[in-house]
Amino acid sequence: MSNNTATMTVPYRKASKAEAAVSDASLSVSTVESREPLLREALGETLRDIRTRCGLTLRELSEAAAISPGYLSELERGRKEVSSELLASVCAALGIAVSDLMVEAASAMALHAASPEMAAI
């Protein structure tokens, strides 16, 4: 059995700085767009949605939950992880169960994950 394989040499050309920058930018954009949100981001977004639906300001909710407005803001922006105790306090101040918040946040994550597939339909 003969093993004759032809190889072709392709000349190598180094990409220019502009080409590299465009390639890097497009890679980071597609990575960001396709990234599933972190749980803390989904929880924060859901907390903010529920707070605004309840007609509460950030300050009003922070006082009712006995946490600082700055910390609540960081939670809503998905910048801080939340403990179960703190989450229970915020949910109690909102008049909702922690499980309801978790279900709504999980639904938002599932919708985000499914959106590229749904767009293709």
UniProtKB/TrEMBL annotation:
<feature type="domain" description="HTH cro/C1-type">
    <location>
        <begin position="47"/>
        <end position="101"/>
    </location>
</feature>
<keyword id="KW-0805">Transcription regulation</keyword>
<dbReference type="GO" id="GO:0005829">
    <property type="term" value="C:cytosol"/>
</dbReference>
<protein>
    <submittedName>
        <fullName>Transcriptional regulator</fullName>
    </submittedName>
</protein>
<dbReference type="InterPro" id="IPR010982">
    <property type="entry name" value="Lambda_DNA-bd_dom_sf"/>
</dbReference>
<keyword id="KW-0804">Transcription</keyword>
<keyword id="KW-0238">DNA-binding</keyword>
<dbReference type="GO" id="GO:0003700">
    <property type="term" value="F:DNA-binding transcription factor activity"/>
</dbReference>
<dbReference type="InterPro" id="IPR050807">
    <property type="entry name" value="TransReg_Diox_bact_type"/>
</dbReference>
<dbReference type="Pfam" id="PF13560">
    <property type="entry name" value="HTH_31"/>
</dbReference>
<dbReference type="InterPro" id="IPR001387">
    <property type="entry name" value="Cro/C1-type_HTH"/>
</dbReference>
<dbReference type="GO" id="GO:0003677">
    <property type="term" value="F:DNA binding"/>
</dbReference>
